[in-house]
């Protein structure tokens, strides 16, 4: 069907509008890093514990403030400002299914935007009250919003995308995330907004995309699958399909949704607990969780944490710009993934990405161990960082977010995305909290831990994850369940087996 092959204006608008939530998520992830020292100084003033040493330190680029010992209360409040974001995301990720099913995809995203704007105002006006309390509150609310957004966006985009473009459009979530991170790194530079005068504005801008999204969402059609399967509104689903695809015969699409609804009605309501207990979806759930664990425990966040220190040790005079260079590489290779994901396939790109990252982690370890022995090892270390990020964005970065929506049918999909999202946020929190301690313990050998984990994830995906490229949700279910009710089961199963092996 030709209409399934083309990208209509309404589809482009809907996907663009949805991924504004992902842009906001990326911005919020990255924005807290650049102005750390400036905000810590303000916290110290706000708490009345600022030392003479601290006030005398210049905040000019290149001057180190690392040697100044901060008051324990400043350290505590700063750590809370960073960590509370992940805690908010962990909590709200459990609500994704409820919001998606009871409010709908569009109304769910609209309602969530109120949280983002409130969070932006709390942080933007931080200097008008107790800065540490307002920033922590704002970060908690923003984390809560991002937990919802990182679930609702892949659900909506996955459901409205034509089969031929489902991978590429699904990858746009991650593209928007890394774009948000890069924007926050650039405007967080000292001479722009990452200074004592403008840091509240820098943090407050994390709510800006929500305003644009609120204006555009009413123009976007609701998911036809949600309307037909969850709401039973076939006529509304037909209208939505035509808005996405233009004038065409919707009977085939509606018949497929009707069949999925009939299957869904035979099952009990798929809550998170029911999904955890279900033996039917166990294989899909294990794959979904492992995909998200491989994303966070790959060491990518540790790289962003550690890259500035490595660049400093390698003799880079302005390591912040090298870190921004890593952000640019991040963006470029996410674009590569968008171009390749519907050609090379999800499984292939994930395997290439994880395998490449494993080799880079080993190279990085060698580079760090011999950095003081051979000067050229600094080049090895830096090259390993850039390649590590490149391999991450080819597959392990974008694919886990949308493959969960592909692995599950309409009924268990919101619960599965909620569980996978919680898994992602929790592992993100664990890496953020414990990496500094592991780094102190292992020193230059810290990335060997990630190399070992990456090897395990690569082996798991090679043996357990099927290719979902070009398959309908029903066909993907057949791969896992090994049977399908109706005609031609054996023949179709053999075709699917032959297409997913090797």
Automatic annotation (TrEMBL):
Its main location: membrane. InterPro entries: GLUT, MFS_dom, MFS_sugar_transport-like, MFS_trans_sf, Sugar/inositol_transpt, Sugar_transporter_CS. Keywords: Membrane, Sugar transport, Transmembrane, Transmembrane helix, Transport. The chain crosses the membrane at residues 7-27, 75-96, 108-126, 132-157, 169-192, 198-220, 285-308, 320-341, 348-370, 376-394, 415-438, 444-463. SUPFAM superfamilies: MFS general substrate transporter. The keyword ATP-binding does not apply. The keyword Transmembrane helix applies. It is found in: Membrane. PROSITE patterns: MFS, SUGAR_TRANSPORT_1, SUGAR_TRANSPORT_2. Belongs to the major facilitator superfamily. Sugar transporter (TC 2.A.1.1) family. This is Solute carrier family 2, facilitated glucose transporter member 2. It comes from Clupea harengus (Atlantic herring). The gene is slc2a2.
């Amino acid at each position: 069907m030709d209409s399934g092959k083309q990208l209509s204006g309404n589809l482009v608008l809907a996907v663009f509008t949805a991924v504004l939530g992902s842009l906001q998520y990326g911005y919020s992830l990255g924005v807290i890093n650049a102005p750390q020292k400036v905000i810590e100084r303000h916290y110290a003033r706000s708490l009345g514990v600022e030392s003479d040493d601290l006030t005398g330190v210049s905040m000019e680029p290149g001057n180190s403030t690392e040697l100044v010992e901060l008051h324990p209360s400043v350290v505590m409040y700063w750590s809370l400002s960073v960590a509370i974001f992940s805690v908010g995301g962990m909590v709200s990720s459990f609500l994704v299914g409820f919001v998606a099913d009871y409010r709908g995809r569009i109304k769910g995203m609209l309602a969530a935007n109120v949280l983002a704007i409130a969070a932006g105002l709390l942080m933007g006006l931080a200097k008008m009250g107790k800065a540490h309390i307002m920033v922590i509150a704002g970060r908690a609310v923003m984390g809560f919003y991002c937990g919802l957004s990182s679930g609702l966006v892949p659900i909506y985009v996955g459901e409205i995308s034509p089969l031929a473009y489902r991978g590429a459009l699904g990858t746009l979530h991650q593209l928007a995330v890394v774009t948000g991170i890069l924007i926050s790194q650039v405007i967080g530079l000292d001479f722009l907004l990452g200074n004592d005068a403008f840091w509240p504005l820098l943090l407050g801008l994390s709510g800006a995309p929500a305003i644009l999204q609120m204006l555009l969402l009413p123009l976007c059609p609701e998911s036809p699958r949600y309307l037909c399967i969850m709401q039973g509104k076939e006529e509304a689903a037909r209208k939505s399909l035509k808005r996405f695809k233009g004038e065409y015969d919707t009977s085939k699409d509606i018949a497929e949704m009707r069949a999925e609804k009939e299957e869904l009605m035979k099952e009990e309501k798929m809550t998170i607990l029911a999904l955890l207990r279900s033996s039917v979806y166990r294989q899909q759930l294990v794959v979904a969780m492992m995909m998200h664990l491989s994303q966070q425990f790959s060491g990518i966040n540790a790289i962003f944490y550690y890259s500035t220190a490595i660049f400093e040790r390698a003799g880079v005079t302005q390591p912040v710009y090298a870190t921004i260079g890593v952000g640019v590489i991040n963006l470029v290779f996410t674009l590569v993934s968008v171009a390749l994901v519907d050609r090379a396939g999800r499984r292939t790109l994930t395997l290439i990405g994880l395998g490449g990252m494993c080799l880079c982690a080993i190279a990085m370890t060698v580079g760090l161990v011999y950095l003081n022995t051979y000067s050229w090892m600094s080049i090895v270390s830096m090259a390993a960082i850039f390649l590590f990020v490149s391999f991450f964005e080819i597959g392990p970065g974008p694919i886990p977010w949308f493959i969960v929506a592909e692995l599950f049918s309409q009924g268990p999909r919101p619960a599965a995305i909620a569980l996978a999202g919680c898994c992602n946020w929790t592992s993100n929190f664990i890496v953020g909290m414990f990496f500094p301690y592991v780094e102190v313990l292992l020193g230059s050998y810290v990335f060997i831990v990630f190399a070992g984990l990456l090897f395990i994830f690569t082996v798991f995906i090679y043996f357990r994850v099927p290719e979902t490229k070009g398959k309908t949700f029903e066909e993907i279910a057949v791969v896992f369940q090994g049977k399908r009710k109706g005609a031609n089961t054996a023949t179709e199963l053999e075709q699917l087996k032959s297409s997913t092996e090797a």
